[in-house]
Specification:
With 130 residues, this protein is mostly helical. Helix content is 52%, strand content 0%.
C-alpha cells in the first residue's frame, strides 16, 4: 500500500480554516495572526511551512501544567508572543527566587506561596502544610 504524503499546513488553512472565517480576507486573517499578508500567502500557497511562532499564534500555547495542547492559558497580564522578553525576565526572576528559597518559607513570600498553592497546588500535587 502506497503511503500518502502528509498534508501541507497551508492546505489545511486554505481548505478548512479560511472558509470557516465567513468571508474574512487573507489580509485580515494575516493581521489577526500578527504576520504579513505575504507570509500568510506563502504558507497558503504551500511555498513555505509554518514556523513554531506561527503555530503558537494559530493554536495557542495550551496548558503549562496538564494535557491540553492548544487554546489559551489563564494568563491575564501577558501575551507569550507579544511579551516574550518580559515573560523570559519574569521566568529568570522566579527561578532565582526558588533557588534561594525553594519552599517560599520567608514570611515576606507568604502571599506568593498562598497564591501558588491556591492556583497550582492540586495540579502540581503540592500539599498545604502549616
Amino acid at each position: 500500500m502506497r503511503k500518502r504524503p502528509p498534508t501541507h499546513p497551508g492546505a489545511i488553512l486554505r481548505e478548512d480554516v479560511l472558509p470557516s472565517l465567513e468571508g474574512q480576507s487573507v489580509t485580515s486573517f494575516a493581521r489577526a495572526l500578527g504576520v504579513s499578508r505575504q507570509t500568510l500567502h506563502s504558507v497558503l500557497s504551500e511555498r513555505s511551512g509554518i514556523s513554531a511562532e506561527m503555530a503558537l499564534r494559530l493554536r495557542g500555547p495550551g496548558e503549562f501544567f496538564g494535557t491540553k495542547q492548544s487554546g489559551m492559558p489563564p494568563l491575564y497580564l501577558a501575551d507569550l508572543l507579544r511579551d516574550g522578553t518580559v515573560v523570559a525576565e519574569a521566568r529568570r526572576d522566579a527561578l532565582d527566587l526558588f533557588q534561594r528559597d525553594p519552599d517560599l518559607a520567608d514570611p515576606a513570600l507568604e502571599r506568593l506561596r498562598k497564591l501558588i498553592l491556591d492556583r497550582w497546588g492540586e495540579t502540581l500535587g503540592l500539599g498545604k502544610i502549616g
